[in-house]
Design a protein that fits this description.
Blueprint: H1 3-27, H2 29-34, H3 39-56, H4 60-63, H5 68-83, H6 90-112, H7 121-128
Helix pairs in contact: 1-3, 1-6, 3-5
Length: 145
Amino acid sequence: MSKKDDLDRLNLILLKINFIQEICETDGIVKSLEDIRQKRPAILMHFTSIAEQFNKIKDNDLLDLFDKDDIKGAIDTRNFIAHDYEGINMAIIEFIIRSRLPLLKNIILNISDKNYKLWKKKELEEIGKVDLSTPLEDDEDYTKW
């Protein structure tokens, strides 16, 4: 696994943190977590993705920049989401969004200040505008899969 792969994972973590923060921006964290139809599931899926990306990073120098408890907490949160979705304590999720995600985001942004090639704020904004709900048009016949 290359350093570029690990940096791509950090970029994805940063993007997911931004998505969570954007989801909570309009109605606030508590109201967003109360929205069991759209906002809560979206937030929890982004948490799952964050943990999976941390789990795939192999560069110990990058991992050492993060608090080990935050990485373990991300993976534990992912496991709760995957194995006990209805039993998740939303107060814990609220705490993570309010206090831990900003710390993780700042660490990643500081990494980009150390000459690592990570997405900048403008790039994150543009990527966040991409509509992934519309399938790409291509000539591939997927019925053969």
